[in-house]
Amino acid sequence: MEQMDDTMWRLWPLDEVVRENAVVGEWGILFGDYLISSWCYRLRPVSADVSAVYLDYFNGAEPFEVAPTLEKFMETLWRNPDEVLEPQ
After folding, report:
1. Amino acid 50: pLDDT
2. For burial by CB atoms within 10 Å, which of 26, 65, 76, 87 has the most?
């Protein structure tokens, strides 16, 4: 998505995912942002087939899990975006 959706969330195109993840840290890869990178989302592998989604504020605190799987993140984003787009 080149533009944010109506909830102010943006899923990055693959070239941006690659560019923003030149170095992959322990919290996984960045893949999308909210409100022009006010905070970003990370995929962190849980197993060979599953990645949890974490929210990263880049404020020195550890990112925290917002969904146990990417599927659950997308499902929640579709049904009730406030659950994964607004800080809790």
Report:
1. 96
2. 76
